[in-house]
Design a protein that fits this description.
Chain lengths: 193, 857
């Protein structure tokens, strides 16, 4: 809904303003920049009529045990714009890009145990499943669900000439030194109300 | 490297660097041709393999306005590098529009809208192309504000009425089709598009106001219960004449009542109507009684609906959350119109009550921050600001809420932290940006390299960044002004103010960017420099928040220009003073001193220029004010800057006793005027006067104190300045030493007046003050007037039950106490007064010391 489009670097100003209005985030500015400069195809913003940024998704690629997979780092929608399906749209766009642009096999994310609205969104609307529980994952001691969804998507760049390795994995997906601090995930409870 | 390795990425580095050079310098466009040639050659021999490389190629062509070439590339083989269809169509549409192939662009945009019917940007571009109007691109090119401007210009003059009619009807058809296609999906876009069409007709001159209102009402009936309704329709409301806006509000009220189905819908619609009233300014036209009744009604509605939020997670928005902000906004308005402090106290209570139930609501915190700032409870304002958890880039976009108040306050420790945190973030970011640029290169995201470098430039050119750098220096100077030795050390670190003078000189030609997010500010202070509460309601003219930054630019530029001259002027004043006393006895001064004087004079000229005056006019101005021939109000809001001028002007011409006299009178007059106007009223109603006093004492008076310290030091019998004792023997006969003594005497008694006023306030027992604060909230049962909203909240607290509102809310209701809020407010005000008193006492001590030193000479 509304215009879901790729984020630009300038959008960072409004994206962080979203955080002021949603929940405080612990990300350093360079962590945002690290995402957008490394995997620009995975950052989407929801732009409302009037050009206002009302939500965003921040995601990245990770390589573990030979499986290249995507990870949703942060999802936020302004309180005034919840229950409109924006989170679903943002997530779908990011997942599609992971699959189509980077050939991700699955996508993972963390969510607070207490965040029922987000949990419902991930399980019921988006088809994620609990993979593990990470004890005391958050700074305040709360546990996180480690959730996953299989993408089983297309091959990377089918139309590319064979043998041309995809550049994005050349230096490793996550070779920069910025560290994730906390995944804050907020979503409208599309199904709970 | 490209030649050596033949890799595409090295070539793209080079191409990006060229693009950046052209973008930043706005020159060297021939280089683009070179870059294009390099890429063409590469494609011919190696083709192209990366989507990002293709994006760079297209943007390179676009930069040279070669839209058709870019279109060819996009539709050729290379176009298949872009895997997401809609992305490709968007680029195609943009290129066609820029190439002015409007009919082809219309077709592309139609295709996008069919794929994603809620894409508003695309719809506007579709209309732009349909009407062959390129103003829409300006909207999307304007990146200077966080939130783009809401009102798009529309050009129709090139269309005949017949052309307009046929095109608008084809747009209508498309919108109707989109509405049919998305009937069940609850998308807002196609419905908003219908309003946009009515708006365009209206702007064309079709006299279709009633259709426009009808379409807005339709949208209300469908989406009026949503929190986003008001911001959705804001741009449409702006084009309506005032009486139509009022008519629209009436329509909403009438129609909302007839469709009350569920509690949440009623709640949502009621909130929406209030927000529309705020947006249209309609709320300021209502009679007092009506506003008051409305606040009571809303408070009841809020309480009634609390049970709906019983089972919500603490991080979720509550039902009716916005009502408390709206109530508070109305209470502040009532205060403004009646000057009855009780309304303001009530607004504080309402918001604090809201925060105890939902601690995360940023609107409550921001509103409280501004109310507390207004009544001088600054530590609480700062606390609320910190609770917003402002960090990283938010320091750039959000700190405007508190920065100005802190700069004008005696809370130097907190202010220093605020400034340092901000500067650290900006400096760190600028330092890290080389690494980040490299990161983007390494991931071969070339278009992001360009975006990022431009973003870095945007932060570098931030007006706030410049201003804070100057303020941080000034703060150090203020903090050390009671000791000339310390001040000299600070000045030494500041390179005697030379760099800041350079900044001042460059300011005129520098690009200033405004990254602050002003939309979150409350209605009564749309930007840091404005506060309607300081003026009267009658003088108010409704002004939308839109152009706030445009108006600010000139003022901000001048203020930075002016303030960055101050450190150097302090330095030069000290230099002049160091020898003045001696020279008042010896006729021939050294050449170096003449140079200092000449420089100081030229800075004085620069300084007065930024005050909109010539040096001689400025001298006339202050002289006349000191003599009472002109009212001090003619100095306007730049009063402190004028006093600074007077201080430095005196330092430049120390031998004139008359100048000393003018300065003494000015200090006396401006300070005593304020004390008189404050009288015995309490802090809540006169904090703006206190703010001015704080500035006078900590800036011009402090600088003048330095001048006196420098003069006195030079006269000390065994000073570090190698003064010989014999000099001092002659001093008593010098008219200048008498002028210094008189000035010390005058300052002493003026500062004493300020201290007395402060002591009078501070000695008022805290309990009495709390009692006074609370007593304003007591109301007469039968009569209307303030206190009613609080009454509603309090009776709800006593009657609520845990089973009804849930344990979390119940707990919050029971722990909230208006006495606590009142006490905290009073204590915060007291702490500001004590900080200020401490500064005054320290100034007095310094002056006493100087008096003693002078008595020896």
């Amino acid at each position: 809904m509304v215009c879901i489009r790729r984020a630009t670097v300038d959008d960072l100003l409004a994206m962080q303003a979203c955080n002021l209005m949603c929940l405080p985030e612990n990300y350093q500015m360079k962590y945002y920049l690290y995402h957008i400069l490394s995997w620009p195809q995975l950052l989407y913003v929801a732009e409302d009529y009037n050009g206002r940024i009302v939500g965003y998704v921040l995601a990245k690629m990770e390589e573990e045990s030979n499986e290249c997979h995507g990870h949703i780092t942060s999802l936020a929608v302004l309180r005034t714009h919840r229950k409109l399906g924006l989170a679903t749209k943002l997530m779908t766009a990011a997942q599609a890009a992971m699959e189509q642009v980077y050939g991700a096999e699955y996508v993972s994310l963390h969510v607070r145990r207490s965040n029922r609205a987000a949990f419902n969104l991930y399980t019921e609307t988006l088809g994620y499943q609990i993979n593990d529980v990470e004890a005391k994952y958050y700074a305040d001691g709360e546990d996180a669900y480690d959730m996953r969804k299989n993408l089983k998507g297309k091959q990377i760049h089918q139309h590319h000439s064979a043998g041309h390795a995809h550049h994005h994995h050349g230096g490793g997906c996550c070779s920069a030194d910025a560290k994730p601090v906390e995944t804050t995930t907020q979503a409208e409870a599309t199904s709970s109300k | 490297m490209y030649k050596l390795a033949g890799e595409e990425r090295f070539l793209l580095w080079a191409v990006c660097s060229i693009q950046l050079q052209v973008l930043c310098d706005k020159s060297g466009e021939k280089l683009l041709l070179l870059a294009e040639g390099l890429l063409k050659k590469h494609i011919a021999s190696h083709s192209m393999h990366e989507p990002e490389a293709l994006m760079v190629y297209i943007s390179l062509l676009e930069q040279q306005s070669k839209y058709n070439d870019a279109l060819q590339v996009l539709s050729g083989n290379l176009g298949s590098l872009l895997v997401i269809e809609v992305d490709k169509l968007r680029i195609q549409g943009r290129l066609l529009a820029r190439a002015r192939d409007y009919s082809a662009a219309v077709d592309v945009y139609k295709k996008i809208l069919e794929l994603s019917p809620d894409d508003w940007e695309c719809f506007l571009q579709y209309l732009g192309c349909l009407f062959e109007d390129d103003s829409v691109w300006k909207l999307f090119d304007d990146t200077d504000q966080i939130h783009p401007i809401k009102n798009i210009e529309c050009k129709f003059s090139h269309l005949t009425e017949e052309m307009f009619d046929s095109r608008i009807s084809s747009a209508s058809e498309l919108v109707q089709k989109l509405q049919r296609d998305t009937e069940n999906s609850n998308l807002r876009g196609p419905h908003l598009a219908a309003i946009e069409i009515e708006k365009r007709k209206f702007l064309y001159g079709k006299k279709n106001e009633s259709e426009l209102l009808k379409s807005l009402l339709q949208y209300f009936l469908k989406f009026g219960h949503l929190a986003c309704y008001a911001s959705d329709v804001e741009a449409f409301l702006q084009v309506l004449p005032p009486h139509k806006k009022a008519e629209f509000v009436g329509m909403l009220v009438k129609n909302a009542d007839s469709v009350s189905e569920s509690a949440t819908v009623v709640l949502g619609q009621t909130t929406t109507i209030l927000k529309v009233q705020e947006l249209t300014g309609n709320i300021f036209e209502l009679p007092l009684g009506e506003i008051e009744a409305s606040t009571v009604k809303l408070a009841k509605l809020y309480c009634q609906n609390l049970p709906l939020s019983k089972d919500l997670d603490p991080q979720e928005s509550m039902f009716g959350e916005e009502l408390l902000s709206l109530i508070s906004n109305m209470l502040v308005q009532l205060f403004w119109r009646t000057r009855d402090f009780c309304y303001l106290a009530e607004a504080i209570m309402v918001l604090e009550f809201g925060l105890s139930i939902r601690g995360h609501v940023w609107q409550y915190k921001i509103l409280l921050l501004h109310i507390y700032s207004y009544i001088g409870a600054l530590p609480l304002a700062f606390q609320r600001y910190k609770a917003l958890d402002v960090k990283n880039i938010l320091t750039e976009t959000v700190s405007h809420h508190i920065l100005r108040q802190m700069l004008e306050s005696p809370m130097w420790v907190d202010l220093s932290n605020l400034l340092q945190d901000y500067l650290k973030f900006m400096d760190d970011h600028l330092k890290e940006s080389a690494d980040l640029t490299f990161l983007a290169y390494r991931h071969r995201n070339y278009s992001k390299v360009i975006e990022f470098v431009l973003f870095k430039q945007r932060l570098q050119q931030s007006n706030q960044y410049e201003a804070v750098r100057v303020e941080a220096s000034l703060l150090q100077l203020k903090q050390s002004a009671d000791s000339i030795e310390e001040e000299e050390r600070v000045l030494e670190n500041l390179k005697s103010g030379v760099q800041l003078v350079e900044l001042s000189n460059e300011m005129g030609s520098r690009t200033l960017r405004f990254n602050e997010d002003m939309e979150t500010r409350p209605w009564w202070t749309p930007c840091p420099e404005k506060n309607y509460l300081l003026g009267s309601f009658e003088d108010f003219s409704y002004c939308p928040k839109e152009n706030v930054n445009k108006d600010r630019e000139e003022n901000v530029r001048r203020a930075i220009q002016r303030k960055s001259l101050v450190p150097r002027m302090i330095y030069l004043s000290i230099q002049c003073s160091a020898t003045a006393l001696k020279e008042s006895l010896e006729t021939n001064g050294s050449g170096g001193d003449i140079k200092t004087c000449v420089e100081l004079k030229s800075l004085l000229e620069e300084y007065t220029k930024t005050l909109g005056s010539s040096l001689s006019d400025a001298v006339d101005m202050i002289t006349e004010i000191s003599q009472g021939a002109r009212p001090s109000e003619s100095l306007g809001s730049d009063l402190v800057d004028w006093l600074n001028f007077a201080v430095f002007w005196n330092a430049w011409s120390l031998s004139s006793q008359e100048h000393w006299h003018v300065l003494n009178l000015l200090f006396e007059k401006l300070i005593l005027d304020r004390i008189k106007s404050m009288g015995s009223s309490d802090m809540s109603s006169c904090y703006s006067d206190v703010q001015v006093l704080v500035q006078i004492i900590t800036e011009p008076l402090a600088w003048h104190g330095l001048v006196i310290q420098a003069c006195t030091r030079s006269s000390l019998p065994s000073g570090k300045k190698k003064k010989k004792a014999q000099h001092s023997d002659h001093l008593p006969s010098s008219p200048m030493s008498q002028a210094i003594k008189d000035s010390i005497h005058s300052l002493c008694s003026t500062v004493q007046e300020v201290s007395n006023w402060l002591l009078n306030q501070i000695n008022n027992p805290e309990d009495d003050q709390v009692e006074k604060f609370l007593s304003t909230l007591k109301r007469n049962e039968d009569a209307g007037g303030p206190g009613q909203v609080l009454g509603v909240l309090e009776s709800f607290i006593t009657s609520s039950e845990e089973s009804e509102v849930g344990s979390r809310i119940f707990e919050a209701l029971k722990t909230w106490s208006k006495e606590d809020s009142a006490r905290k407010t009073v204590m915060a005000q007291q702490s500001v007064l004590r900080e200020f008193l401490q500064i005054c006492e320290s100034k007095k001590k310094l002056l006493e010391k100087l008096k003693q030193q002078m008595s020896h000479v």
